[in-house]
Amino acid sequence: MGLRKFKPVTPGTRFRVGASFTEITATKPEKSLVVSSKKSGGRNNTGKMTMRYMGGGHKKSYRLIDFKREKFDIPATVATVEYDPNRTARIALLHYADGEKRYIIAPEGLQVGQKVVSGDTATPEVGNTLKLSNIPLGSIIHNVEINPGRGAQLARSAGAYAQLAARDGKYATLKMPSGEVRSILVTCLATIGAVSNSDHANEVLGKAGRKRWLGRRPRTRPVAMNPVDHPMGGGEGRSSGGQPRSRNGVYSKGFKTRSLKKYSNRFIIEKRKK
Question: Model-level pTM?
């Protein structure tokens, strides 16, 4: 994993910092694990725009990722490490001993030819998936389940990881990527290691065109709009603005939007850092 700086031969490459892709070992995905992906352009089923600043972008196909890792005690060999246009992390193709092939989120340091396994008999090594009850305290983990058997939902993006801090009865205490400390059932699965492509946060697109390739259209500043378009619009010259808020009038700084009745509130021991 690494970054690549470009010579300023064009205005678009002057400040560009991109991924080196040195860890990628295959350029074409496994056909049996690819399905078509349709773009919405931010429109709903009636054609009305419900999400602004979406549209265009390069055509993509979706890679089916195994977030459940429920093939217990069946060893798998890492066949390839690949680029996935649908996520920031790299993905790895596993060839299981019974002949099945599956994609997983590739952890940092996973090598082609390496053996990985999930289940109670697995050792706490990079790429292996275990229950939180079997993982040593202090371990760095990712792809953490919230509910047993539901599949990984936490710490899945590039460079993300959680840390297993403690265990008490049927709950384990995890420090999340956001700094939040929460309780999760020890019967939930998690994968050892941190997610790959940790340098993703340091990439610089370099030009507006690369943003368009990702399917993101230009965003208009609210203070540049008219009052009919946004609460922060209007005014003479640059005198517009006021309290930062969304198009619907919801304040964007300091106003809490989390539901007081959310089911997971009772599992949060310490809130995330502001």
Answer: 0.92
